[in-house]
Specification:
By secondary structure, the protein is α/β, with parallel strands linked by helices. It is 43% helix and 15% strand. The chain has 15 helices and 10 strands. The strands form 2 sheets. Strands 1-2-10-7-8-9 form a 6-stranded mixed sheet, sandwiched between helices. A 4-stranded parallel sheet has the order 5-4-3-6. Helix 3 packs parallel to helix 4.
Length: 347
């Protein structure tokens, strides 16, 4: 499979001298949500970013960030992470043959993501604090040591993530009417907006979408208008109280005629279950914030009949198996007899 950097080389900050560190990222499915489209009167799609190599959208930015880090001679990379960034950074560092270190908020990372970082050989430090404190800490580390920072404050991360918007336009033939996306550290909404504008400027698309970003209600600093000191939500990937790219996210929403809003954990979990049970799409809880936000906005009359809308589902459901098991119907134990099986199945 062609590396993402090579597919969009003319629109990315790379040169012929840039070594390409790739795991075959990008090219993720854009799936029409038929049941929800009919129910809501929309032309609704989901961008399944959980189909990237490490199971999240982070791989788009990480391939560019690691490629540029290697080009610049870095021997190690570091990040703060609620999970997906740590998994991606560790995998791409391993691919590049350099070291990775990650700081995670203690007790605030889903098991699937922690497993990935550990298996890819990263040095994982569990910080007695939240994500925002972890990010402050790694910023100080890179000022004192020759280590490359690969959080979304790294511009190469944002550049790589613009390719999600490119692919949406490629698949649809143009930008959608609206794009719904979860907002945590706010790098992804920033990148998608930049990507849509870049594609239009390159005359590869004609229009721009409304950017609709959704935070979890317990971690919604952009909605509340102030930092959330102790963010809390079931959606661990967006449990961030002081987004590094908050101003850019707000600008993306305003410039596109969109909005930043919040959704409750109950709304997130309802959308999470709805996607899995009616569309066959299994995403992690934070991803479902985009669909929860869509449903909330639709109920308030925020879309016109037939609007084409894309929801970005940022990570795979297997990233957070504990939530899936807790929200599922449960396992029924039966004796090893046909009668017992038939009774359980058909009673």
């Amino acid at each position: 499979m062609t590396a993402l950097i090579d597919r969009y080389r003319d629109l990315l900050p790379v040169t012929e001298a840039t070594p390409v560190v790739s795991l075959g990222e990008g090219g993720t499915p854009l799936v029409r949500l038929d049941t929800l489209s009919e129910r809501l009167g929309l032309d609704l799609y989901a961008k399944l970013e959980g189909m990237n190599p490490t199971g999240s959208f982070k791989d788009r930015g990480m391939t560019v960030a690691l490629s540029k880090a290697v080009e610049d001679g870095a021997e190690a990379v570091i990040c703060a992470s609620t999970g997906n960034t740590s998994a991606s950074a560790a995998a791409y560092a391993a691919r590049a043959g350099i070291r990775a270190a990650v700081l995670i908020p203690e007790g605030k990372i889903a098991a699937g993501k922690l497993a990935q970082a550990l298996m890819h050989g990263a040095k994982v430090l569990s910080l007695e604090g939240n994500f925002d404190q972890a990010l402050d800490m790694v910023r100080e580390v890179v000022e004192r040591h020759k280590v490359a920072l690969v959080n979304s404050i790294n511009p190469y991360r944002i550049a790589g993530q613009t390719t999600g918007a490119f692919e949406v336009c490629d698949d649809l033939g143009d930008a959608p009417d609206a794009l719904c996306i979860p907002v945590g550290n706010a790098g992804n909404i920033t990148a998608y907006w930049e990507g849509f504008r870049t594609y239009r400027e390159a005359e590869k698309s004609r229009s721009l979408p409304k950017m609709l970003g959704f935070q979890a209600a317990g971690a919604a600093p952009l909605v509340l208008g102030h930092t959330v000191e102790e963010p809390e939500t079931i959606a661990t990937a967006i449990r961030i109280g002081n987004p590094a790219r908050g101003d850019q996210a707000l600008a993306a929403a305003a410039d596109s005629g969109g909005a930043i809003d919040s959704v409750t954990d109950d709304e997130i979990l309802a959308a999470y279950s709805l996607l899995a049970s009616t569309e066959g799409v299994f995403c992690e809880p934070a991803s479902a914030a985009s669909v929860a936000g869509l449903l909330k906005r639709h109920a308030a009359g925020g879309f016109a009949e037939g609007d084409r809308v894309v929801c970005v589902l940022t990570g795979h459901g297997l990233k957070d198996p504990e939530t899936a098991i807790g929200e599922g119907a449960g396992v029924v134990s039966v004796p090893a007899t046909l009668a017992a099986v038939e009774e359980a199945l058909f009673a």
